[in-house]
Amino acid sequence: MFDTESGQPVLEAHRCPLCGKPNQCVMAQSGAAEDQPCWCRSETFPQALIDRLPPAARHKACICRACVRAYHQSMQEQQ
Fold first, then answer.
1. In this structure, what are the phi and psi dihedrals at residue 34, rounded to the nearest 5 degrees?
2. What averages of pLDDT result for each successive group of 10 residues across the chain (79 residues)?
3. Domain count, the chain
4. Among candidate residues 26, 11, 21, the one with its CA nearest the CA of residue 59
5. Which pLDDT does position 3 carry in this prediction?
6. Residues 6+ apart with CB under 8 A from 44
7. How far is CA 35 from CA 10, 18, 27, 47, 57, in A?
8. How far apart are the first and last CA of the chain?
9. Which of left, alpha, beta for 4 (phi over 0: left; psi -120 to 50: alpha)?
């Protein structure tokens, strides 16, 4: 989905901003308060992964587990 004025993609909180797939974030899916348990609350998101996002998309939606795992795997393979 794109913004009709800017032509930029519309960021959906329940989708990973990297791959566009559902990010499985409980807070984004249910609109629940931040005190709800969710996998993303205990995950460490590497800054290098966050840096792959356009600045306007940072800290707006959770990067999904698959993208986080793929990043960690690619870092291990480079060693």
1. -65, -15
2. 51 87 83 72 90 86 92 90
3. 1
4. 11
5. 46
6. none
7. 26, 25, 9, 23, 23
8. 38
9. alpha
Domain that holds residue 50: 1-79
| Calpha distance 77→79 (Å, rounded) | 5
∠ CA 50-54-42, nearest 5°, is 25
What pLDDT was estimated at residue 5? 59
Is the CB of residue 23 less than 8 Å from the CB of residue 30?
A: no
pLDDT of 64 reads 93
Residue 53 token pair: 């996002």
Return the sign of the alpha-carbon dihedral for residues 43, 47, 53, 55: positive
How far apart CA 7 and CA 1 sit, in angstroms, is 9
Residue 56 DSSP class: G
